[in-house]
Amino acid sequence: MPLRLTVIGAGYLGTTHAAAMAELGFEVLAVDVDADRVEQLNLGNLPFHEPALPELLRKHTASGRLRFTTSMAEAGAFGDVHFVAVGTPQRAGEHGADMSYVDAAVAGIAEAATKHCLIVGKSTVPVGSARRLKDVVLSKSSPGINIDFAWNPEFLREGFAVEDTLRPDRLVVGTDSDSANEILRAVYADALERETPYILTDFETAELVKVAANAFLATKISFINAFSEVTETVGGDIRTLADAIGYDARIGRKFLNAGVGFGGGCLPKDIRALQARVSELGLDTTMRFLNEVDEVNLRRRDRVVYLAEQLLGSLEGKTVAILGTAFKPNSDDVRDSPALDVAGQLFNRGADVNVYDPEANANAAKRFPRLNYCDSLVSAVTGADIVLLLTEWPEFIQMDPETVGTLVEGRIVIDGRNVLDPEAWSGSGWTFCALGRRMDHVSVPVPV
Ligand code: NAD
Ligand code: UGA
């Protein structure tokens, strides 16, 4: 009989994984504690924006191959393989990861399992968690029920989640069980047929691969953003600098886009959790550089606020148009979004803040209800004293400076993602500022 899979946690990761596994031919049952979410998902309605996922969800809820439930007991009776994909957010007021959801999900499914099965962790966790949770599984499983255990971290990117899940660039599996390895090779047979690298390792390496990858990406972004602080001071063009070093294949051009920095539900919390975990292990200084990575990143947001204030003289009574609230394009995710952070800071300093994002307005409004949410680019910029591009959606990159210029009160723009053509904007009479470029009309010092 073909393997039956469950996915525990139907968020960005879990829903994508569940739908992709259904697409690969498996029968999938996904579990979430949020009953409304489960109801919507069963109707084929995706509660967040992710390209290509609505089609997959509708296809497989209709075919019957993909179902959602709130019942762990149902999942325990159904699944041969249980993937755990619940959240590991930053703990309130601390840097460490909140493991309570993973702990509850793993214990819950181990208790509920009524047949031999495999539990596979996919959430991003502090090193040492998998070994600890393996013992939890042993202690919670019913007599006579054998449960294997593995950790299989996920590397998908929001915006490309379906593609990344169906065609991953590598698979990493941490386990000490031969049968867990065999079962996962069967689950991932499609990718393995395409010779996708499959890295079989121990629990600790698997956990560390995940956080090392995110820490490296965050470091790359802050590296180029630190150079932005230099080029803003001495002159120079950060985009050219990134292109030039990126031609060196050892460095590579990806993740060297300077701007308002990284956000989202993963990079920021993962670098903080890694530092916290390594400190717990007594290695206080080992990951200290990640503190700098974090600081450089957060300084970029303050820099935008500072520039806006400098350019306007005072923010009091001024109308600011913020283009983008999602942490990146092709997403409606506003978790730790640089754009929304900047919008909130400007509001708190007295500006009237219009915001527009093609997908993320609703999520942003839940976090920052007092901003003026606009339903189009045109309404956001109309009457604005300054325009800030903070998420590089295509419709913002393609804006025509002449057309936008007829709508605004003042032709001042800050390109927070280095995606606009400086000559075209300056040529249309705009005061043009971009992060990583020297601005002669603004006093230079980085304020924080
Ligand atoms: P999310 O917050 O979108 O989803 C988590 C879901 O789990 C929520 O729907 C929540 O209701 C549910 N949940 C919580 N406790 C539960 C329980 N005990 N039983 C069943 N459901 C439960 O989170 P996410 O963005 O999908 O991230 C999940 C994990 O995957 C995190 O560790 C994250 O770091 C990692 N990750 C995320 C991505 C991504 O792009 N979002 C990529 C790779 C890895
Ligand atoms: C990131 C990783 O890229 C995924 O591999 C990983 O699985 C995921 O985290 C996770 O662990 O959840 P994601 O958060 O979807 O994926 O977004 P990224 O594409 O990595 O972008 C993160 C942030 O960095 C965004 O705010 C983006 O605007 C910013 N960024 C990215 C830059 O500022 N400059 C760049 O050059 C690239």
Q: Could you name the key traits of this structure?
A:
Rossmann fold; alpha/beta; six-stranded parallel β-sheet; binds nicotinamide-adenine-dinucleotide; binds uridine-5'-diphosphate-glucuronic acid; 19 helices; 13% strand; single chain; 448 residues
Topology overview:
Blueprint: E1 4-8, H1 12-23, E2 27-31, H2 35-42, H3 53-63, E3 66-69, H4 72-78, E4 81-84, H5 100-112, E5 117-121, H6 129-140, E6 147-151, H7 161-166, E7 171-174, H8 178-187, H9 189-193, E8 198-201, H10 203-234, H11 238-246, H12 267-280, H13 288-312, E9 319-323, H14 338-348, E10 352-356, H15 361-367, E11 372-373, H16 377-381, E12 386-389, H17 394-397, H18 401-407, E13 412-415, H19 422-427, E14 431-434
Parallel strand pairs: 1-2, 1-4, 2-3, 4-5, 5-6, 7-8, 9-10, 9-12, 10-11, 12-13, 13-14
Helix pairs in contact: 1-3, 4-5, 5-6, 10-12, 10-13, 12-13, 13-14
Task: Describe it.
The chain has helices at 12-23, 35-42, 53-63, 72-78, 100-112, 129-140, 161-166, 178-187, 189-193, 203-234, 238-246, 267-280, 288-312, 338-348, 361-367, 377-381, 394-397, 401-407, 422-427; strands at residues 4-8, 27-31, 66-69, 81-84, 117-121, 147-151, 171-174, 198-201, 319-323, 352-356, 372-373, 386-389, 412-415, 431-434. Helix content is 46%, strand content 13%. It is of the alpha/beta class. It has a 6-stranded parallel sheet with strand order 3-2-1-4-5-6, sandwiched between helices. It has a 6-stranded parallel sheet with strand order 11-10-9-12-13-14. A two-stranded parallel sheet has the order 7-8. Helix 6 (129-140) links the parallel strand 5 (117-121) and strand 6 (147-151). Helix 10 packs across helix 12 (267-280) and helix 13 (288-312) packs across helix 14. The protein has 2 domains: 4-201, NAD(P)-binding Rossmann-like Domain (Rossmann fold, 3-Layer(aba) Sandwich), CATH 3.40.50; 214-434, NAD(P)-binding Rossmann-like Domain (Rossmann fold, 3-Layer(aba) Sandwich). Nicotinamide-adenine-dinucleotide binds at residues 8-14, 31-34, 37, 85-88, 101, 104-105, 108, 123-124, 154, 156, 158, 265-266.
